[in-house]
Amino acid sequence: MVGQNTNPGFFASEVALARAAGEGNPRANRELAERLLNRIRATVYYLAAGDRDADDLVQMALVAILRSARTFRGDSSLERWGDRIAVRTALRELKRRRWRERIVSLDGEVAREGRVSVDHDIQRRLLRERLARLLGKLSMDRRTAVTLHWMHGYSVQEIADITSAPANTVRDRLRTGKKQLKSHLEKDPALRDWARSFIHESQGS
Amino acid sequence: MRAKDRSDEACRHYERLEMEEAAGGVAAEHQRAFMAEHLVRCDSCRSLAAASALMHHSDDAGPAQPLDELSRRRFVNYVVTQAAADGPLGDADADANADGDAALHSGRYRWKWIFAAGVAALLVLSVGLVLALRWSGPKGDRAASGRAGARLVMRSGEVVVEGAAAGSDLALGKTLWVRRGQAALSLPDDAYVLLGERSAVRVVRMSAAETTLHLEQGWLLAMVQPKRHRRRFVVTTRAGRVEVRGTVFTVQVTAGRVRVEVLRGQVRLVNPAHPQRLLRRGHSAHLGGQDLTVRPLTARARRVALARMATLALVGGDRGAHLDLRSQPTGAEVAVDGVVLGRTPLSGRLRLGHHRLRVQLAGRTPVQEQLILRSGDRIRRDYELGPTVVSVRSLTQSDMGVDGIAVGRPGAGAGAGAGAGAGTGTASTVRPVEPGPQVFPPVIISRPKARRPRAAKIPPSGPDGVAVTAGGLLKRAQKRRAARDWQGAAASYRLLLVKFPASSAARAALVALGMLGLDHLGNPAGALRSFNTYLRATRRGVLAQEAAYGRIRALRRLGRRTLELAALRTFLKDYPGALQAPLVKRRLVVLSASPTKQP
Question: Which residue of A30, A105, A119, A147 is the best one to mutate when testing the B interface, meaning the one whose CB has the most B CBs within 10 A?
Answer without folding.
Answer: A119
